[in-house]
Amino acid sequence: MGIVLEQAYQPRFIGENLEKNKVLYNPVSNLAIKHGCTVPQLALAWLLHQGDDIIPIPGMFE
């Protein structure tokens, strides 16, 4: 439950910022559905496609 409380105090999760992020999230979510994966899986695939010098940190998309 600590994560939920911490997220509530992040500017990106408050008020109009949350609404703006929802607008950006919906197309990404639809793209993930189209490719049969989750949004975090799509984000990780995009990240890995950026080059050989990118090292994802497991658990960062939770």
Automatic annotation (TrEMBL):
This is Perakine reductase-like. InterPro entries: Aldo-Keto_reductase, NAD(P)_OxRdtase_dom_sf. It comes from Gossypium arboreum. Keywords: NADP, Oxidoreductase. Signal peptide: none annotated.
